[in-house]
Amino acid sequence: MEIKIKISKKESHKLIICVFGCTTIPEYKNEILKIEDTWGKRAVKKGVKILYFLGEEKSDLLDDTKYIYLKNVGNDYQSAIDKQNLGLKYIHENYESEFIFCCGTDTYINIDNMLSYIDGFDSNKSLFVGGHGDYRTLKNKQYYFHCGGAGFILTGVCLHYIYSVLTRIKDEWHNICIESSCGDLISACDVALSYYLQNIIGSDLQIIENKQQFFGCNYKGIVHHKGAGLYMCCNNIIKLKTLISCHCMTLLDFDEFTKILEANSYFSENEVIKQITINPFLLDIPDKFHYTNNELVEIQKKIENKKDQVIDMIKRIYPYNDENYKFPLELVVDRCSKGVCQKLIDVDAGIYPSKILYKIGDGGDKKNCFICCTTNLTNDRALRASQIQQSLEKVGFNGYFYLFNGGFPTPRGNEMKYVAVPYCFKIFMMLEAEKLGFEKIIWIDAGCYAVNNPERLFDILNEDDAIFRQFWPYSPGIPTYENSVFKETIVNINNITGGNLVNSINVCSVVFGLNMKSQKIQKFIDEYYEMVKLGTPFLSYFPEEVVISAIFNKEEYKYLFYNRHESLMLFIHENYMCNNFDIAKNHGYYFVQRQY
């Protein structure tokens, strides 16, 4: 005879939240409903199970997949210890969970931060995690406990160890408190659980105290105490971006904090990345090789309409709490919003975009060209760029200089919709020069001024595919990728290239030359275009340089890094020469980079 064995498999979860509450008193029932309408919704969206453990008396909340009415349990203050312990027992018997978080109904959880936090722990260990705690003396021994109001995390391993005693903790705990002359702790379910965890698991229990993310006060650092009223608690140390849980939350607090979280993508790096997987700079502009002035006026309006959206995004992902990040918010906003702050055309001022190809000297072999593009007609860069021509003539250069003032380079006819991507135009401009028949093309920033004849740089491009200054990782005085690039951007770029950006050689593009006849360089340009299409790789303090560096550090392009003396002499900033161009000239530099 065949015997069929029915195997019952428990429902499995990464995280289960054990909430002890009350539905028979309107004030506490409303807290449950408010959870459901705020962080509870977020939990459901993220696949987190919430279970409410309630007294025996039932209400109209009858969904038994989440509302668990406990037999022989009341709804007074003393019942919290039963709801906590019997709730944990219920979870152990009915679910498999790597982590369990216990809290009351006036606790608020940033689910995104909670999930990110537990990802850093080994659920196979006996971990007891929380904060805002203290010590109590029981049986002549001090015991640390996490604040139950802020909530605490147990691993499933911990729950396995204490499962057998959960039903008897209440009675035993009463006697322990009396023996220890601590009658005020009889209802302290957080102290009780900590006591049993430490005595049952012993030295294998890892107690992790986190004072920076678990708070027994509300999100403003204020405690609402029925007896003592309002008082300030952690208001000087709470950081909303990293907060995991907070307590003493009123219904209004729930709503206010939810709005803050929603406005800031729950302060979640992963959430921000998801929101900006579509190019955040992309504009609805038809592809064309040439745009009339009237069309540029309409494009200018679209750029200006995009400005607030882009700046808000930058502020959301700025690493406020990262002490290693070097650059202040206002400078990062300025750099990353260059695309939406540029002026392509200014009809009111009578300023229109121009493309001018200057023949310098006798033009040389007509294959060599310097290029520059100023995409803001109203600042000093346009004036400085026009002075490049004069400086090239002065040092005896023979070749060409191609200058864009205003407008935007569209060599392939599909670039204008990416006009708001910060500093993406350099490579586009090089392709514009290539379309005119030039083969060796060197970009120079608008602030550069020639002090020595740079023809030798084009000779190098006959032998090498590129010329630029490079800086090794962690070079003294040079910003690292960690302190100049958003973590989200680093993750994004690493996923695209398969590399490790933080250990990459840095490419400086102040003076940056390419041999456009090289197939490798054309392949690099295609990869660069793919980065532009994504937009997000340009979110850093050095937008285009980080992208170029990331691609050049791929194995197939690493041959481009070399230590020619000329690369070291491409340019020097005027501050290092005391604004004396003759000093730079005598030292052999090709260009002085001026402040603009």
From TrEMBL:
GO terms for molecular function: glycosyltransferase activity; nucleotide binding. Its main location: membrane. It is a single-pass type II membrane protein. It holds the Pfam family Fringe. Residues 97-157 form the Fringe-like glycosyltransferase domain. The chain crosses the membrane at residues 143-163. It is found in: Membrane. Pathway: Protein modification; protein glycosylation. The keyword Nucleotide-binding applies. Keywords: Glycosyltransferase, Membrane, Nucleotide-binding, Signal-anchor, Transferase, Transmembrane, Transmembrane helix. SUPFAM superfamilies: Nucleotide-diphospho-sugar transferases (SSF53448). One of its GO terms (cellular component) is membrane. PANTHER family: BETA1,3-GALACTOSYLTRANSFERASE. This is Fringe-like glycosyltransferase domain-containing protein. It comes from viral metagenome.
